[in-house]
Structure formats: C-alpha cells, structure tokens
Amino acid sequence: MRGFTRMTDLLAGRYELRVRIAKGGMGTVWRAYDGHLKRDVAVKLLHPWIAEDVELRRRFAREAQVLAPLEHEHIVRLYDYGEDGETPFLVMEHVDGASLGDLTRGREWTWQEVSELARPIASALEYAHARGIVHRDLTPGNILIESATGRVVVSDFGLARIARSSTSVITQGMLLGTPEYWSPEQARGLESETPTDLYALGCLLFWLLAGRTPFEGDDRLAVGLRRAHEVAPPLASFVPDAPRAAATTIGALLSANPSDRPTAVELLDLLGVSRPSIADAAAVAVDASNRETAVFGAAPATAVLAAPSRYAARKRRRGRRMIAVAVAIAAAGALAFVGATIANADSVVDVPRVTGMTVGEARVATAEAAHVEVADAPLAVGGRVYSESITEGRIVTQKPTAETQVERRSFDLVVRVSRGTAYAEVPDVEGAERQAATAALRAIGFAVSVRAEESWEIPEGRVISSDVAAGDEAERPGPIELRVSSGPPRAPVPDVRGVDVDEATARLDGSFETEVVTEGSTTTEAGTVLRQSPAPGTRTVLGSTVTLTVARAPEWMTTWSESRSGDYDSPPIEVTVPEGDWRIIVELHPRYLIFGSGLAMFSWDGTGSGRIGLARVGTDSVAPHSGAGTYTLKVRPRGSVTWTVSIEQFR
User: Fold this and answer.
1) Using CB atoms within 10 A of its CB, is residue 264 exposed (0-12), middle (13-18) or buried (19+)?
2) Which residues is 562 bridged to in the sheet?
3) If you ran DSSP here, which 8-state letter would residue 592 be given?
C-alpha cells in the first residue's frame, strides 16, 4: 500500500498532506489542504490492515454516506470519503484546538464547568440519536475544543460500529471501543443503542470531577468487563462534597439498566438548556466559514480551557453590574417615590419576550427580569414541538405571555422549544422485520401504527408496505401505517364431526385438502367422521390438510392362541386395549371321531378374573369385564377332547 510520509504528498490529486497530528486505532489524522475548495481540512488515512479488508472498506463507504448529512455545530463534519489507489481515507472538518483528554490533565473541575461542557455534547448526541446514529466510543479523545471560541465538537461518530463489523479488527488485537467507557451492554457483547452513549458520557463526567473513571485497574479489558456484573460506584465515594445535582445526574447516566438512563433530550432538560456551547458569546462572534476552515493544530491547554472560565467570569461580572444597577435604581426610586410605590414595584415582574430565543438566552432574559442569578432563573422547558416557522432549538411559545405582569413570588416561565420542521423523509422499510421497521421510523420521530394483512409472498412478521412511500416526506409524528404480513391466508376449519365422510369432504373442498384414516367402532355407524385435526374453528392456512378419522365396521385380530389336549397354565399375556375391546374365544373338539366326548373349564386371572365352563363340544366366547393389563389363562379338560383358546383384540 502507498505510504504518506512527505509533507507535500497529494492525496487523490486534491488533498495536500502537511502535518500528521494524531494517530488512533483506526488510522492516522493529517492536517491537509483541499486544493479544489482552497481550505484546510483533516484527513484520516485508514490503517493498512483496514485497507486490505475489502468488506470493511465497503462498510466505510456506506457509513460515510450515512454520516455526511450530519450538520450540527457540535459534531465534526464529514466532507468526503475516497480511495487513492488502495488507500481509503476520510475528509473531515478541521478544528483548531485539542482533545478534552489532552487539555484536562492536572486540572480540577467544578460541577458548573462540567455541566457547561456536557451541554454541547448532549446536544450533539440528541441530534445524532434522532437520526438513528449511535457514537459507541464517546471518550475524552473524541471531544475536541476549538481554541478561539471554546466550541465543543464530537468526532468519530459511527466509526466504532464499522470496526465492530470486521474480523480484521479482532485479528489485529484492537479493542472495540474504549473499555474504561464501555456500557454494561457493551461489556456483555450485546447490541449498542443510544443509552450506550449516555453511559459513556456519565463515565466522562465522573472522570472530570473525580479525576478517574468509575472502574479502573491495570488490565484494561478486565476493567471493561467488570461493569457487565458490577454497579458503578456513586460519585460521592470519590468526591464527598460533590453537589447533589452532580451526583444525581451522573448516577442516572451510569444506571446498569439502559432504560433507566435519561435520553439526550432529558439530559439537556436536566442541565437546563437545549443547545448551548461552552462559550456562546465567543461562538456567535465567529463566522461559520472561519470555523469550517480552522486548522486543528497544537493549542496550549490554557488557551482552550480559558474559554469556559472567561465565560463564567463574564457572567459573574454581568451579574455584579446588574446588582449595581439595581441598587442605583432602587436608591433613585427611594428619593423619588413613596414607600408604597416601591413595595408595589418590587412585588411584580414584567414578563420578557423569549420566543425565538435559545433556552440559554431565555434564561439570561428571565433572570434579568426576576433580578436573580442566571442559575436561579425561574424558567422551565415544558416540552418540545415541531415548528415550520421557528428554528430548531429556539423557543416557540411561552407562558405567561410577554409584556404582562405577574407576582414575583409566583413567577415561573414555562416554554416549549422547537424541534425543527415536522416534515421528514420516510425510510424504506419494505421487507424489514416489524420491530426493526418500527424502530427506524420512531428514531426519526414518527409514530407507528400496524395493520396485519395476509400475504402468500411476504413472510410472516415482515413489512409489506407503508401508507407513505419510501423517500416521500411526511409530517411528524404521523403516524405512519405499516402493513405487516400475518402469513398466508387462513380460514376457520368447519366442524364435520358426526357427518358422513363424503359430505365432510365436500364441505372442506375448495378451502382445505382432506386425508382420511379409519378406526373400528362398535358404537358409530361406519363412514361417519369420529374426529378431525385441526380441531373445529381453528384458523388454518388455506390449502393445508385436514385429517378425518372415520368409523368402520368392527374387526377382530388374534393376538394370542394355544391348542392342546391336557391341563394348561399360560405364561403372562399382555392385553393393551380397554374393556370391551378384547375377548376370549374357546373351542372344544372330540379326540376320537366316534367315542370322543367331554368338557373343560377355562378361567383367567389378572386385572379382572372369570371363567367359562363348557359341558359340551363346541365354540364359545366371552368379553371380560376388565381392561388392559397382564393376564394368565388356565385350561382343565375332562374326557376325550382337545381344546383351543385365543385372545382377540378389536381394531
């Protein structure tokens, strides 16, 4: 494979590789220059052992198509995927800064700083999860901070899933994901869904506050596997003075059960804003095109981490200025107005207009109106709604309405935040399993209804079609109706018991095939249906076979027989049919043609006992009043006779 070692190698005739800036499990990252668009970019060259795996290269190409549309200020943009000879590569947005892991060594964090850092990460996860994309390897190394603005961005979305699909990764001995940030389901080898990212974020926040991850040890793989059967320790066990909000939030994120963890949306509500960044004020001042073409270089840790501190300091200074202004106004008011007027003014709040603002901006405005610190602003997010007129992340409605007055002691501003346009493209789910199709639609924001429909062609449980064609746009939440196959057409089997077999066959004809078996019966007329399978009323696939058991005339079958002339005691004889379905036949014959005469006594013992006494030559039979079991027969002849005794069973 071609190697890139010189500073001016030209990749795909377009990208000039200048400086290698990082190396990871999947490849090396270079600062490069895009000669076509005249901008700096980051280029990730995949490792040779990945390039040699043809299937993995195909997966990278397909994943790039999924990740490329992601457009979010806190997610590193993926611009391009290509191959130069046998070298596959990714082209990404270039960020001028360094990773969170590089910038926090030896630094102590407060919960206020940590929660401020968590907001843009949660915002990025919310955006990606809504589009069905899971990161699966969220670590400090994948969190980048832009030095000029303090903008936080998440990188390498989706790459862990590609790696997981290749046996080459295991061959190379590479750990799938980072064990210190594995979720319990990852440690068990189960499929990783959106709660996996929230668990990793919980580990990351734990690490920032405690200076260590929840599980640590010399053997990284063993550390990762521990969480498969161990509950994460509480934050208070390492940070006794941790704020209650920190312990509660991180404890929820580290829940062993994925369903107990908050979603990214719920986490944003817990943190207090929908889409903030660490340095909103600085980010607003930086033009988007400048951000896009920034160079990801070696920035001092102090330069990047100063952004949160400067932002917090600016807020504190603004709070102090607000207090000073309030004091001055109060003093002036005291000179100009009577005490009653002052008391009335302090008891009401003029409700600010916050529609169109971000939640962060609305908090500032609400705090100013209520004369409190931003952290204590009486603002709550009451829900998120779709809007065609208000940009995603900005406030759609507020209650109380703007420019009204409310009593200060009861002032609470409840807002609803835009989720962006209600219209989204419907994915192609035809032929997919019902559960997978439902999950794909719900991930985009659609509600789903299901209607069962019989089908000869589509297997049971798979989608036949949806009421909105794939690729068309529909209004969320919908619902989108799925027609799901219930298998081939079925019909209830009619009851033909007690009916003549010819009539029964005629009733079933056209819907079912018939198979007839006979059974001897002494109580039912021959040709009558005794039983049927499947049972009457059972919904059965059309065209399948119904078995009819039909009565026939009695038939007897000899199962044991013995002939002699003297006394006889039989060995044990096994009878396998119930009472009434077996009988004993005895015959007595003269030994000599002229002078032969005599009699014999026949008896039996077993489940029941009895006897037959014959005083003359001839044939007789008896049906014993006993059922299946083991029996012995005794014969005691008198005179010049021979005898025969048989056991017959009914069939």
Assistant:
1) buried
2) 645
3) S
> Could you tell me if 230 and 184 are in contact, meaning their C-beta atoms sit under 8 angstroms apart?
no
CA 348 to centroid of chain Cα atoms: 49
For the segment 55-76, what is each residue's pLDDT rounded down to a tens digit? 777 777 776 777 788 889 999 9
Q: Which CATH number fits domain 556-650: 3.30.70.980, 2.40.37.20, 3.40.630.10, 2.60.120.260?
A: 2.60.120.260
DSSP letter string, 545-572: EEEEEEEE---EEEEEEEEESS-EEPPP
Distance CA 525, CA 551 (A): 7
Strands 379-385 and 413-418 come out as parallel
Tens-place pLDDT, residues 8-35: 457 888 888 888 787 766 677 888 999 8
Residue 113 host element (H or E): helix 111-129
Compute the CA torsion angle 481, 484, 489, 492 (nearest 10 deg). Answer: -80
User: What's the CA gap between 491 and 476, in Å, rounded?
Assistant: 37
Q: Kindly list the distances between the CA atom of residue 128 and the CA atoms of 65, 136, 177, 358, in Å, as whole numbers in the listed order.
A: 14, 12, 18, 19
DSSP 4-22: --STT-EETTTEEEEEEEE
Neighbours of 407 (CB within 10 A): 9
- How many Å apart are CA 369 and CA 345, to the nearest integer? 12
Per the CATH hierarchy, to which homologous superfamily does domain 99-155+176-301 belong?
Transferase(Phosphotransferase) domain 1 (1.10.510.10)
Return the closest-CA partner of residue 43 out of 73, 85, 99, 4: 4
Determine if the peptide bond prior to 400 is cis (ω within 30°). yes
Phi, psi of 640 (to 5 degrees): -95, 80
Alpha helices in 227-297 (DSSP H): 244-253, 264-271, 280-285, 288-292
Tokens (6 digits) for 364 = 């500032």
Cα atoms in the 13 Å half-sphere on the side-chain side of 625? 2
Q: Would you name the residues annotated as active-site residues?
A: 137
Answer whether residue 512 shows pLDDT above 90. Answer: yes
